[in-house]
Each structure stands twice: as structure tokens, then as C-alpha cells.
Amino acid sequence: MNIGEIARRAGVSRSTVSYALSGKRPVSEDTRRKIQRIVDELGYQPSASARALANGRTSTIGLVFPPAGNHYTGMQLDFIGSVVEAAAAHDYDVLLSPSGVDSDRSFQRLLGERRVDGAILMEIRLEDDRAEHLAALGFPSVAIGRTAHPEDGWYVALDHTALAAACVHHLADLGHRRVAFVNRPEQLLRTGYESAQRGLDGFTKAAAERGLTVRTYCCGDDAAAGQACLERILHDDPATTALVTLNEAALGGLYRGLAHAGRHVPRDFSVTGVVANRWAETVTPQLTAADVPAAEMGRLAVDLLVERLDHSDAPPRQHLLVPPISLRASTGPAGVPQT
Amino acid sequence: MNIGEIARRAGVSRSTVSYALSGKRPVSEDTRRKIQRIVDELGYQPSASARALANGRTSTIGLVFPPAGNHYTGMQLDFIGSVVEAAAAHDYDVLLSPSGVDSDRSFQRLLGERRVDGAILMEIRLEDDRAEHLAALGFPSVAIGRTAHPEDGWYVALDHTALAAACVHHLADLGHRRVAFVNRPEQLLRTGYESAQRGLDGFTKAAAERGLTVRTYCCGDDAAAGQACLERILHDDPATTALVTLNEAALGGLYRGLAHAGRHVPRDFSVTGVVANRWAETVTPQLTAADVPAAEMGRLAVDLLVERLDHSDAPPRQHLLVPPISLRASTGPAGVPQT
DNA sequence: ACTTCCACGCGAACCGGTTCGACAAGCCGG
DNA sequence: CCGGCTTGTCGAACCGGTTCGCGTGGAAGT
Fold it and tell me: Is A66 within 8 Å of A122 (Cβ atoms)?
């Protein structure tokens, strides 16, 4: 079951078997066929560990994702799935690492023990010690999201600033004047989560530009928090007629809160935001939102990483995506505000 | 940065360094301290590939999950997360393999190239060629779900038969007489998906036992399919007053269909089923359902696999879980059927 | 017939760990 | 004073591949 056994049966040396299989040196057609036949018969496959040791490449990429403390979102799942599939298409396996911080044991294992050739980082923060650490080491990695200093790195990201602004303009165009912003949990915002930060930023700037009256909220990643958040919004300003959210998991709760308050969507109240389309279509009425192309982002991230692995001297490349707003059924013209 | 370098700096042999770090043979306190100091200074970590080659263990487990063709469900995500965390607690990494069938390339890589010490199989079918293949090879694995011949294998599973039956009894106790069953997509049922098959089975038997009039449906894994399915249900038998579903992803669509049809939940129509609690709490009104303990299952699966890896001769162990129905707000007594 | 060249294949070294057998030094009891 | 035992360390072999340099035999060239 090892290469020596194949060599013995074929009556050739181990190196010849290696060359026959890798094609890195010419081998006569006869011996190549003989070797191939034996390999097929025995179902021989070379050991990944031995190969990795010999040529220094593991054919594995690490996917660093946040620990379970945060609830997972549907977007993350689509993302993981597409990364694994795209990696398989390039003959890479995917090793999962549930890492928060750079000092994390699991993260150290990936790098220190050289288990992976490169890494994809999810859930980027504006100041991200993992990203900085990898960059300092020159370790091949691609970030999903932009840090505060993105120019020199490889990344695939959504332009959250532009997306939040697009939502604001959409609502303003419909005549809404008092709009709330429902962000991810406060803890994520404080620790500098890029989507939460840039989204808030884009929302605030665009709202100022359009002269809207706004309030911004942080909201836990679950339905109950969403419902509570909506109650606060209507309590703080009952004249609010629309909201923008980045918080998928709270969406159901927001809807529930609106139903409880007797606000009909979209007649009395408009809802929009940035959400994976699977979620946008699950709620009733379906959410008008900028659809997060999670699967495409996963694929792009793998493509970028593979390119970086193949050409270690290649200059950084980036993809900054701005998906359009899909018009569904949750927004409409502003009516007469209830007071 | 390799063990020879450490040995050189400490003025000892490579084997001494190895023993000092692993503790498999006694090393004098002096030399151990000297070696440890150098290791700490240099931040040395042994190469995973070399270690795996030498001792035949990769410290990695494979997680075989379905390819993206199927939509992922929230349950799967919780599951993956908990597996990764539980594995990390046992000092194992997790390698993802998006495999459907036994002949799959990615699956072959896991086994043939000996990338993993053991595997966890998700999305089990009653006749599962992957599970049989692994069993035939004696390869350490734990299934999430039961095949048709479960007695000799290691698994963690829900008792879908009992859960579906519990839903039926719950509805029957509330006085419902005409009940629909909304299953996973037909293609999954036909290919022998165990949750779809056993759930259908448990539903049918329990309904017969209670003398209910039932209809069973397959439904695509998305909101639009759920809505369409509900329309068919009311079209086929407008007197239907309740449904049981296993289909998380269709749930939002089912609710939407009910709203469109003017059926109020739970006054006019009761909904229950087997669903991860995160989803059950997202819809309005919150779903009375048997909550799938995905995170717990992931943890148990890893525990079982680690036990099997540590004691290769251990007899098979299983966990068959029957979570209780969480009473929320989506079921109520049967009213007068609308005709 | 004698070089020249090329195509093929071989042996050995190497990747970076682990592990086994052996050996030296120190201590003990007889 | 000598044999036996323990403790600590070393050298070498091994895991299963890849890769480099060299040797050989046959065909081609003059």
C-alpha cells in the first residue's frame, strides 16, 4: 500500500513510480502503463502526510471562522459551503478553525504546525490582529471583509458603506423621513466589526446627506432581541416609518414586533437592509434588500487564495462587491406618520 | 525552526528533545528546562505533517457533509460549529468534505490519502453506501443518523419516528382530525434520507393509530416551495386544520401561505414539527416543535468518535435522542373546520 | 568502428518528526 | 571490589513520499 510496494511489484525503483505518477520527468510508455495498472489494481493513493512532508505543501486551506459564541448566520453557512466546494475544485481540502483572536490555540496550530498552505479569514474587524499577524508573517491569506487599512491586502468584501447608503436612498426616494438603523449586537460594534462599523457609517452619512431624522440601534442576534429592539424604536419615536437592518437573525423578531404594534408592512412601515437572499425570501412580506452573495464571495475568496499560492509574488488583488437592492415587498411609499 | 535546530542549540540530540516534549521517556529536570526555554524563545512547534507521518495519526477528523446542491439548513450550521469546537477541545482539527456518494473524489482523498483519523457522517440515508464502505473498511466513524441496520454502528441520532409521532399525538390531543405532513423534498425521500423516511413513517403510523385523516407532501427546501405546498394542502382538503413539518427552510413559506389563505395561526390552523429552535423562534407566532439539539449532537458525535479512536476495540455506542416538544404559540385546539 | 547524445531508470539523500536498542555513569548491596 | 540495576542520553532506523545527480544502453552521426 505504499510506493515501495508498487515499485516492487512493477519491478522498478520507487523514484520511477513517483515520476510516472507525477509526470515530472519522462517515463517510457511501457513502464508507465505497467505502473498505472498496478496502481489501479491495488487502489494505491499516496499518503497526504508523507507528500506534505516531502514537498512542503499540504494542499489544505484553513477557514478561520468565529467561535460559536456568536450565533451563526445563514450567510456564513452558504459561505462555508461554497468555500469547501470551490476548494475541492482546485484540489484543496478545507480545515476549519474556530478562532477569535490571534493568540488562540487552534489558530496557532494551523500556522505553527503548518497544517495549511493558506487561510481565509471570516468576520473581519477594522483592526484585526489575526489579519495583521498573518500579514506580518507573509502568510498567504485572503480576508472576507476589509480592515481599516485594506490597500495592501488580499480580500473579498462587500462595500457595506455603499450598501447601507443605497438602502437609505431607497427609503428617502420613497418619501421616508424618520428612519431607524438596526445593527448587529453592540459588542460586535464596539470590537470593530467591519460590517457593523461601515454599515453604520454609510447609513449615518447618507441619512445626513438626505436630511433624514435617524436613530441607530444595536440588536442581539436573535428573534427575541429583534422584537425588543422594534419596541424600543417605536417607543423612542413613534413617527418612525422605516428601518434598515444588517441583522439577519433579528429579522423575524422585527417583523413580529411590527405585527404586534399593528404596523402593516409595507403600508405603514418599510423594512430593508443587507441580508442573504435566502432569509430575505423567508419572511412575509419578502424583504426588499441588498442580497449578500455569500456563495459567490466564497468562490472568489478561494480563487484569490489559490492564485496567491500559485504565484507567491503576485501583487494583492481585491474584490469589492456592491450587489444591487432586490425589490421585493417590504418597502413602499411613506404614508402619514402615526403620532 | 525544526527539532534538529532545537537540539543543536540545547546541545542535546534530537531524540532527547522529542522525549522532553512528549514526556514518553524520563528526561532530567535540567535538560528539560533548558529545552523548554529554547522552545519558548523560538516559538517552536513541531510540523503536523512530519508528526503524522512518523506516528500514523493526523489529529484530524473528517466531517462529511452534503454538497451545496441541497440547501443548507440552520441545523447543519449549528452542528458544524459544535463539532469543530468539541474537536478542538480534544485537540483535533476538522477537515470538511462535501461528499455525496462513496465514489466521490473528495471522500476518496480523506480516506485513501489518510488525511483523517476518523470521520463523522452527516445526512445519513437508510441505505448509505458511505457508511457501509467505512464499516467494511473498519474505518473509525460516527454517523449522525441511523441507517436501516443501525445495531452494529456508532451513531448519534434523533428518533425521528418517535418525534413525528409525538407531533401527531400533540395535535390529536388538541382535537385535530385532518392533518397534513410536510416533508423534505421528494428527491431526498426517494433516495432514502433517514429523517424524511422515518419521520414519514412515524407520522403515518401514529396518525393511523389515532384515526386521523392525513395527507403527506414533499416540499422543496425554500420559502417559495413552502408557500406553494400550503396552497396545495388547502386545495386538496380545505378542512385541514393542522400540519406537521420537518422542513425548516419551508417554514416561512408555509406561514406566508397560511396568511394569504386567511388562516390565523393558531386560531384557525395549528403548525408543529421538528425544527432547530433558532428557527422555531424566528417565525411569528413562534413554533411549537420538537427542538433539534444540533449543538449537543455535534458534541456527542465528537465524544463518541474520540472514544472510538482511543480504544479501537471498544464496542459500538449510540445515542438516540428524543427531545421533548417545546410548547410555543403555533398550536391550539381545533376549531370548526372551514369547508 | 568510435564518439556523441538522449531517453530512461536507479540509488541516495532529504523532509521533520518518533521510537527502539544500546551505552555510560552513578548507586546499591553483597 | 565487583556485578547488577536504574537513570539519562545518544545514534540510527523508520514513516512514505519527492528530487537530484549519475550511469547505462541504444540510436544517430561521421
Answer: yes
pLDDT tens column, B170-189: 999 999 999 999 999 999 99
A253 lies within 8 A of chain B by CB = yes
Beta bridge partners of A96: A63, B94
Domain contains B29: yes
**CATH number of the CATH domain containing B146:** 3.40.50.2300
- Do A166 and A286 fall into the same domain? yes
Whether residue A85 is contained in a domain is answered as yes
Backbone angles phi, psi at A318, to 5 degrees: -135, 155
Burial string for A263-295 (b: 16+ CB within 10 Å, else e) reads bebbebbbbbbbbbbbbbbbbbbbbbbbbbbbb
**How many contiguous H segments (helices) and E segments (strands) does chain B have?**
14, 12
Edge-to-edge order in the sheet of strand B325-326: B213-218, B178-183, B242-245, B270-276, B288-292, B325-326
Is the distance between the Cβ of B34 and the closest atom of strand D smaller than 7 Å? no
* C-alpha distance from B252 to closest chain A C-alpha (Å): 5
Secondary structure (DSSP) of A103-143: T-HHHHHHHHTT--SEEEE-S-BSS-HHHHHHHHHT--EEE
CB-CB neighbors (< 8 A) of B252 in chain A = 281-284
Q: Give a yes or no: residue A327 inside a domain.
A: no
In a domain, B142, yes or no: yes
Cβ–Cβ under 8 Å, residues A168 and A331: no
Does B113 sit within 8 Å of A45, measured CB to CB?
Answer: yes
Kindly state the DSSP code that residue A241 receives in the 8-state scheme: -
Q: How many domains does chain B have?
A: 3
The maximal CA–CA distance of chain A, rounded, in angstroms, is 91
Chain B closest CA to A90's CA: distance in Å?
Answer: 11
Mention every residue, 6+ apart, whose C-beta is less than 8 A from residue A103.
none
Give the model confidence (pLDDT) of B134-169 as tens digits: 999 999 999 999 999 988 899 999 999 999 999 999
Model confidence over B75-88: pLDDT tens digits? 788 888 899 999 99
B52 inside 8 A of chain A by CB: yes
Cβ-Cβ contacts under 8 Å between A and B: the total is 154
- Judged by CB atoms closer than 8 Å, whether chains meet at B252 and A283 is answered as yes
pTM of the model: 0.92
For the record, the C-alpha cell of A2 comes out as 505504499
- Does the CB of A68 have a partner CB in chain B at under 8 Å? yes
- Shared domain check, A305 and A214: no
Flag if A106 and B88 touch (Cβ within 8 Å): yes
User: Of A239, A246, A236, whose CA–CA distance to A202 is shortest?
Assistant: A246
Same domain, A173 and A285: yes
3-state secondary structure of A60: strand
Q: Is the peptide bond before B285 cis (omega within 30 degrees of 0)?
A: yes
Q: Are residues B105 and B26 in the same domain?
A: no
Same domain for A183 and A119, yes or no, is no
Q: Which nucleotides in chain C lie closer than 7 A to a protein CB?
A: 7-21
What SS3 state is found at A178? strand
Q: Are strands B93-98 and A242-245 parallel, antiparallel or unpaired?
A: unpaired
Q: What is the pLDDT of residue A339?
A: 46
Report angle CA B56, B62, B68 to the nearest 5 degrees: 155
Find where cell 515520476 sits.
A19
Angle A286-A289-A290 (CA atoms, 0-180°, nearest 5)? 145
Which of A124-128, A195-199, B279-283 is predicted most confidently? Answer: A195-199
Instruction: Identify whether residues A150 and A136 lie together within a single domain.
Output: yes
Alpha-carbon distance A289 to nearest alpha carbon in chain B (angstroms): 16
Query: What domain range includes position B30?
Result: 3-43
